[in-house]
């Protein structure tokens, strides 16, 4: 009884929520465009033509990708974020030290205003870590501006110099969240970005337990992904392109088929592990290289189509938008979970000790079993 009444109410509650969200985001979008776009008119004009194309290209490869993978844009440029967010195909955005530094040093009046406000804020608060506070406040100011343009998550990095200091990381992460909340952005929309060091992962475990969601970044190896998932990270950001860079150097090889690209293989393995073992940790790759070499910028993106989320820089979003044709889904939860057997065999083959000693051990057991069986057979025949 109670349950069916709830079931009736739920869709209505969702519709109301949706309407409220649409109203709020519509209002803040209007405000954001007045504040940010005016001063970036030149850049914005340059993008107007492609923006028209954006809305027209409903069946672009970008639209196909967005239908299976939630997309995030990799830029701190508010005008560009706005332009892509308006297509409805981009859900999240991120700040990182490079983007914040660029914004902070750009001289562009929009960003200068964010810097000035951060300085004023830190001076007013005083204290002995005024400089660190000003830096965090600047990252949050940029994040707040971005949060008005996209409906989803916005990531903010804890000072990367604290990547090996759990206690300091916790302090700064909690402060970043309170700065967001002070500015009216709820913590449910913020991801605290932490490097996949042991201390970063340990800090993440505590933050997640407090309801502060984290984006574990700089993930290159399986062990980092597994630890992040086991300790409850909301999201990981593996970098297939940089894994490829490394393997190119180590193997002295320049090109791969996209499916064999070591970066693609690494991310697929993380994704499969999460699906197989029921971790809800989101697998969100970023950093892309052409597996087959120049002219194939979208190789890794296409080879991982279907993963939970992806972060893509504007230039590649544009390419996806301009290219037609079908973009097949390559990753899905059920097949990924089933692929673990192949993964086990591959890893086993790579492990000389496990392969050799398992075979040797089995042979010895089998030889003894055969001996025993022969002896019993004789006794049975005699009896
Ligand atoms: C998580 O961090 C990575 C690395 O900086 C970034 O590319 C990605 O967009 C972030 N994810 C979200 C949802 O903000």
From TrEMBL:
<dbReference type="InterPro" id="IPR004730">
    <property type="entry name" value="Transaldolase_1"/>
</dbReference>
<dbReference type="InterPro" id="IPR013785">
    <property type="entry name" value="Aldolase_TIM"/>
</dbReference>
<keyword id="KW-0570">Pentose shunt</keyword>
<keyword id="KW-0704">Schiff base</keyword>
<dbReference type="GO" id="GO:0006098">
    <property type="term" value="P:pentose-phosphate shunt"/>
</dbReference>
<comment type="pathway">
    <text>Carbohydrate degradation; pentose phosphate pathway; D-glyceraldehyde 3-phosphate and beta-D-fructose 6-phosphate from D-ribose 5-phosphate and D-xylulose 5-phosphate (non-oxidative stage): step 2/3.</text>
</comment>
<dbReference type="GO" id="GO:0004801">
    <property type="term" value="F:transaldolase activity"/>
</dbReference>
<dbReference type="GO" id="GO:0005737">
    <property type="term" value="C:cytoplasm"/>
</dbReference>
<keyword id="KW-0732">Signal</keyword>
<dbReference type="GO" id="GO:0005975">
    <property type="term" value="P:carbohydrate metabolic process"/>
</dbReference>
<feature type="signal peptide">
    <location>
        <begin position="1"/>
        <end position="32"/>
    </location>
</feature>
<dbReference type="InterPro" id="IPR001585">
    <property type="entry name" value="TAL/FSA"/>
</dbReference>
<dbReference type="Pfam" id="PF00923">
    <property type="entry name" value="TAL_FSA"/>
</dbReference>
<protein>
    <recommendedName>
        <fullName>transaldolase</fullName>
        <ecNumber>2.2.1.2</ecNumber>
    </recommendedName>
</protein>
<comment type="similarity">
    <text>Belongs to the transaldolase family. Type 1 subfamily.</text>
</comment>
């Amino acid at each position: 009884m109670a349950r069916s009444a709830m079931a009736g109410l739920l869709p209505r509650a969702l519709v109301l929520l949706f309407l409220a969200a649409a109203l709020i985001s519509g209002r803040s979008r209007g405000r954001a465009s007045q504040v940010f776009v005016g001063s970036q008119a030149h850049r914005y004009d340059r993008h107007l033509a492609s923006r028209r194309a954006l809305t027209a290209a409903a069946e672009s490869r970008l639209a196909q990708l967005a239908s299976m993978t939630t997309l995030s844009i990799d830029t701190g440029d508010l005008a560009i974020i706005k332009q892509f967010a308006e297509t409805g195909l981009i859900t999240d955005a991120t700040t990182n030290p490079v983007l914040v530094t660029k914004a902070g040093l750009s001289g562009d009046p929009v960003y200068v205003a964010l810097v000035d406000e951060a300085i004023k804020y830190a001076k007013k608060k005083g204290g002995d870590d005024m400089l660190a506070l000003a830096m965090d406040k600047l990252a949050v100011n940029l994040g707040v501006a971005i949060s008005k343009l996209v409906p989803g998550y916005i990531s903010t990095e804890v000072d990367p110099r604290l990547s090996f200091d759990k206690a300091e990381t916790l302090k700064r992460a909690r402060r970043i969240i309170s700065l967001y909340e002070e500015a009216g952005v709820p913590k449910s929309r913020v991801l605290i970005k932490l490097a996949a060091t042991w201390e970063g992962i340990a800090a993440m475990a505590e933050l997640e337990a407090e309801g502060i969601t984290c984006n574990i970044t700089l993930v290159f190896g399986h062990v980092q992904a597994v630890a992040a998932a086991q300790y409850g990270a909301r999201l990981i950001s593996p970098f297939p392109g940089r894994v490829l860079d490394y393997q190119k150097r180590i193997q002295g090889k320049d090109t791969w088929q996209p499916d064999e690209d070591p970066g693609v293989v690494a991310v697929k393995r993380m994704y499969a592990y999460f699906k197989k073992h029921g971790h809800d940790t989101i697998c969100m790759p970023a950093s892309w290289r052409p597996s087959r070499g120049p002219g194939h910028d979208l190789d890794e993106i296409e080879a991982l189509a279907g993963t939970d989320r992806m972060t893509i820089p504007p230039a590649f979003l544009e390419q996806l938008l301009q290219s037609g044709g079908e973009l097949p889904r390559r990753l899905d939860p059920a097949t990924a979970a089933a692929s673990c057997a192949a993964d086990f065999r591959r890893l086993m083959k790579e492990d000389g000790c496990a392969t050799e000693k398992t075979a040797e051990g089995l042979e010895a057991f089998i030889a003894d079993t055969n001996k025993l069986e022969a002896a019993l057979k004789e006794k049975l025949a005699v009896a």
